[in-house]
């Protein structure tokens, strides 16, 4: 079966709330006026993954003196990371204990960086409250958690199931909800501000050449060197890291069936007058007749933000209510009006919003927009070396769950690149990393995994069949 490739990021896109305070230093930024003809390492993509790779290269002595260039099709951080729900929440069950531990470590790493550098990105440490709205999805969650108690009791002990109506109310969840799980150690943040803080720092310190509005249209490879074609000319390097997530197959067609673009819908809603801040970050499974495999997700911005002090309810999802295609779509210039309408109305029913809600039928939107995720056919990110393309590396395919993965996946690629350059075989480097918990084995790109994943139903077939692809939060 042939699979449609993603297209390149469109030059324009819907207006994400997170871009309402753009980073002035980075807008239109090109560290050098001309695109360098050569580099030692080129990174493609300036979201959480590409930025993390750039940061860890800059921090690693083994990369001292290397010319690092980052190419971005749009403005910096204008892809999924600049358009997402703002959750950084580890999933503790579903994918195995090694993945849970990796995600916990990832969130800790993100938080430590923010604290160390005092990054003004509205980080709030919260519990993740995942709501289950039908008896079936609640029973499924309880079954999985019971299994986790057997195979990984130390992780399971961090989870709490709540079904008591009073307790649900304390978490501001409607008592109509069947039950919820509470997970500690989650965070909510303004992701664009974190990523652009890191990028600006790297550029100002002279450790990165960033070239925005420079799409890579093709990669040609010869004699272990890769030439990246752009409308501004070419750049050649022995090592290229693709951090292009949902758009990967536009320049790596071989991955068209493995990382599939999926459009997601987001909104920033004004809370009711005089309402108090919500205590948790939230995921909602099967709420208000939504399909069980397409979650809704909510965080609240603090009321103290400047110059946007409104405590917006950042609410995404509404896939079941939508009428436009989403799977296989790499165009985020479009809003699905039905998903958007669902998002404006649903919180008044699924949450206990206090303040002045009497007579309010829907919340007013400060912004509504879309963004492109990369769904992985076997539900795990793809991290490592692209087979049969010496020097070409990839990290992407987070299935709408990149914030608790992208930072350490970006680091993992850097460790693989530099480990191999130091003379170790890639298999040996990766085995060491898996052993240390630096990357889950199931994330590694291997010929065996590629073949096995291709036996799975396609992403579209899984979605049509109601399979829950982890998805958001
Ligand atoms: C609406 C929405 C809500 C989401 N909510 C959450 C959430 O709450 N929590 C969570 O964990 N995850 C969420 N996600 C998923 C999360 O945002 C992604 O998994 C994560 O941001 C991926 O980061 P990335 O750096 O790999 O990709 P991106 O942030 O998409 O970055 C890739 C970059 O590569 C650039 N690029 C692509 N192709 C080329 C090319 N050929 N040449 C040059 N540049 C190129 C793009 O322009 C883009 O800037 C959401 C995603 C969406 C769309």
Structure description:
The chain is an alpha/beta fold. Helix content is 28%, strand content 21%. It is built from twelve helices and 18 strands. The protein has helices at residues 48-59, 97-117, 135-151, 153-156, 165-170, 191-204, 248-251, 337-350, 406-421, 426-436, 447-453, 459-464, and strands spanning 41-44, 68-71, 87-88, 124-132, 160-162, 179-188, 209-211, 218-222, 225-230, 233-237, 239-242, 259-269, 281-285, 296-300, 313-316, 365-376, 382-385, 392-396. The strands form three sheets. Strands 3, 4, 5, 6, 12, 13, 14, 15 and 16 form a nine-stranded mixed sheet that branches. Strands 7-2-1-11-18-17 form a six-stranded mixed sheet, with helices on one face. α1 runs parallel beside α6 (191-204) and α9 runs antiparallel to α10. The longest helix has 21 residues, at 97-117. It is globular. The model has no long low-confidence stretch (mean pLDDT 94). Flavin-adenine dinucleotide is lined by residues 8-9, 44-50, 71-74, 78-81, 83-87, 215-216, 243-247, 250-251, 264, 266, 297, 316, 371-373, 396, 398, 400-404, 406, 472-473. This is FAD dependent oxidoreductase. InterPro entries: FAD-dep_OxRdtase, FAD/NAD-bd_sf. It holds the Pfam family DAO. Residues 40-416 form the FAD dependent oxidoreductase domain. It comes from Karstenula rhodostoma CBS 690.94.
């Amino acid at each position: 079966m042939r699979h449609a490739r993603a297209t390149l990021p469109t030059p324009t896109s819907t207006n994400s709330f997170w871009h309402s305070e753009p980073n002035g230093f980075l807008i239109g930024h090109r560290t050098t006026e001309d695109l360098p003809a050569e580099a030692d390492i080129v990174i493609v993509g300036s979201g959480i993954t590409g930025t993390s790779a750039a940061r860890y290269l800059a921090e690693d002595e083994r990369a001292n003196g290397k010319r690092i260039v980052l190419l971005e099709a749009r403005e910096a951080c204008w892809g999924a990371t600049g358009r997402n729900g703002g959750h950084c929440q580890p999933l503790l069950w579903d994918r195995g204990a090694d993945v849970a531990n990796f995600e916990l470590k990832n969130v800790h790493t993100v938080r430590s960086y923010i604290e160390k550098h005092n990054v003004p990105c509205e980080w709030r440490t919260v519990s993740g409250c995942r709501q289950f709205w039908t008896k079936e999805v609640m029973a499924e969650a309880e079954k999985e958690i019971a299994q986790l108690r057997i195979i990984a009791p130390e992780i399971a002990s961090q989870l709490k199931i709540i079904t008591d109506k009073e307790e649900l109310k304390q978490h501001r969840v409607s008592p109509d909800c069947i039950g919820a799980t509470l997970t500690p150690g989650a965070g909510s943040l303004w992701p664009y501000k974190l990523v652009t803080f890191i990028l600006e720092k790297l550029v100002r310190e002279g450790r990165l050449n960033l070239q925005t509005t420079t799409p890579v249209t093709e990669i040609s490879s010869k004699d272990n060197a890769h030439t990246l074609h752009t409308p501004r000319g070419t750049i050649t390097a022995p090592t290229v890291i693709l951090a292009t997530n949902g758009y990967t197959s536009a320049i790596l067609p071989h991955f068209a069936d493995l990382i599939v673009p999926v459009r997601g819908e987001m909104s920033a809603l004004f809370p009711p007058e005089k309402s108090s801040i919500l205590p948790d970050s939230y995921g909602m499974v099967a709420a208000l007749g939504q399909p069980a495999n397409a979650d809704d997700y909510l965080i609240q911005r603090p009321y103290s933000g400047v110059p946007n002090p409104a405590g917006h309810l950042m609410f995404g999802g509404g896939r079941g209510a939508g009428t436009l295609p989403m799977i296989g779509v790499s165009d985020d210039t479009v809003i699905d009006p039905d998903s958007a309408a669902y998002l404006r109305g649903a919180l008044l029913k699924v949450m206990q919003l206090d303040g002045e809600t009497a007579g309010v039928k829907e919340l007013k939107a400060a912004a509504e927009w879309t963004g492109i995720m990369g769904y992985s056919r076997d539900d795990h990110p793809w991290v490592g070396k692209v087979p049969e393309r010496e020097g070409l590396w990839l990290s992407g395919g987070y299935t709408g769950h990149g914030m608790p993965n992208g930072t350490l996946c970006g680091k993992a690629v850097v460790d693989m690149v530099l480990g191999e350059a130091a003379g170790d075989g890639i298999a040996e480097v990766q085995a060491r990393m898996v052993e240390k918990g630096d990357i889950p084995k199931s994330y590694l790109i291997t010929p065996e995994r590629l073949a096995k994943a291709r036996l799975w139903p396609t992403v579209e077939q899984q979605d049509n069949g109601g399979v829950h692809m982890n998805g958001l939060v």
